[in-house]
Amino acid sequence: MGRLILSPYLYTNREMDSIKNMRYYGKEQDGYLRVQSTRPQSLGFGLGDSPIGLLGWLVEKFHEWMDVAHYDMSDDEVLTFVMMHWMQGATPGLRYYKMAFAEEGEASMKESFKTYLGTPIGLSHFPREIMMPPYDWVSWVANEQFRREHDKGGHFAAVECPELLVQDLRDWFSSEVVKKAMQSEI
Q: What is residue 100's DSSP assignment?
């Protein structure tokens, strides 16, 4: 808690913006997570029964989690997303949250941060991503070897700015760190 009190002095402006985003998300935007992690089947029936309901559910997420200052989804893109989820049924995409979060409960989520991930990881930081922790928070739980900060993009970076995400993936997977890690696994 002391680090948060001192955070204006310890973190960059970008990291402070990330903390602010995470606080906002935790207070105003995690209702979907609570519903999906406890009652995905009920929600799936409702969203699967009505493409208009699914449209409303997804558009709200797009509006909150995309960098709308730099990207405007076309009507065709929105309808494509809706149809991709509606045609397969909405439930499969929702069940992940129950399996990942609710089965073990909140204590399990907290426990997961007590285990250090030694495998090298790379992160792309887009300013409208909903959960992007400061550098030192990541270093407590993972062996971060690559991070690139971008000036645009959000939670749906693969749609908003695919060229940036693809370049990060190319750079990360062609790095010496990954090559070395891959050799040690063979």
A: I
Q: Compute the distance between CA of residue 156 and CA of residue 107 in angstroms, rounded to an integer.
A: 28
Alpha-carbon distance of 180 to 84, in angstroms, equals 38
Question: pLDDT (tens digit, 9 = 90+) per residue, 84-110?
Answer: 888 888 777 777 777 777 555 555 556
Answer positive or negative: Cα dihedral of 175, 178, 180, 182: negative
Rounded Cα distance between 124 and 117, Å, is: 18
Other C-beta atoms lying within 10 Å of the C-beta of residue 142: 17
- Distance between CA atoms of residues 21 and 31, nearest Å: 15
How far apart (Å, rounded) are the C-alpha atoms in residues 118 and 48?
40
Q: pLDDT over 70 for what percent of the chain?
A: 88
For residue 146, the cross-strand partners are 122
For the segment 32-60, the average pLDDT, to the nearest whole number, is 86
